[in-house]
Write a structure and sequence with these properties.
mainly alpha; Tetracycline Repressor, domain 2; 9 helices; 75% helix
């Protein structure tokens, strides 16, 4: 019985670490956040903090996963998946440190398949493509988009445009990170809906 209580406490502490880390990274950025600062913010030593994670990269990957969990928990099931994705991108302008973390970890994971975040990004992009494809299929079933054009090309384009736009925004922050992504989505839907 003690193991279950100990396990539950460990899970709760890990969640506390990740929730606190979301705030710290959002405020200070990926480059401005150290393991020591994260450990101090939850009352642990660096070794104590890393007891919950296999490495610094695993810690930062877990922060990204936690961010996705928080975003998904806030999602309105009555709002279109793509509209929710655009809302998250719009919110990202308020948390540039997390955008920086995402971009930095994505770059590292892309260049090294053994990186702690590699599987996270493979899974994440596959999930987003599937969600966008499902949103397109729903539009096809409603007659808003003709069947046959198929979701795969659009389902691949939207995540690519989103990632690229966020990278551009980090290099030259502006007031509207999501607008260009939304525009591409609307133009793509219009192009698919227009008979050739």
């Amino acid at each position: 019985m003690a193991q279950r209580g100990s396990y539950a406490k460990g899970v709760a502490k890990r969640t506390e670490i990740l929730d606190t880390a979301l705030d710290v990274v959002a405020r200070n950025g990926f480059r401005g956040t150290s393991v020591k600062e994260l450990a101090d913010s939850v009352g642990l030593s660096q070794a104590g903090l890393l007891h919950y994670f296999e490495s610094k990269d695993e810690l930062f990957t877990a922060i990204l996963r936690r961010r996705d969990e928080v975003d998904n928990a806030l999602a309105d099931p009555h709002v279109d998946t793509v509209e929710q994705l655009i809302a998250v991108i719009r919110h990202n302008a308020d948390v540039p440190g997390l955008v920086q973390l995402f971009a930095s970890m994505s770059t590292a994971a892309t260049s090294d398949p053994s990186h702690a975040a590699h599987a996270y990004f493979v899974e994440r992009y596959a999930s987003i493509r599937a969600q966008v494809a499902a949103a397109i299929t729903i539009r096809q079933e409603r007659g808003e988009v003709p069947a046959g054009g198929g979701p795969p090309p659009l389902a691949t384009v939207l995540p690519a445009v989103s990632a690229g736009r966020q990278t551009q925004w980090m290099l030259a922050p502006g007031p509207d990170m999501a607008g260009p992504v939304e525009l591409v989505w609307r133009l793509a839907l219009a192009a698919v809906a227009t008979p050739a």
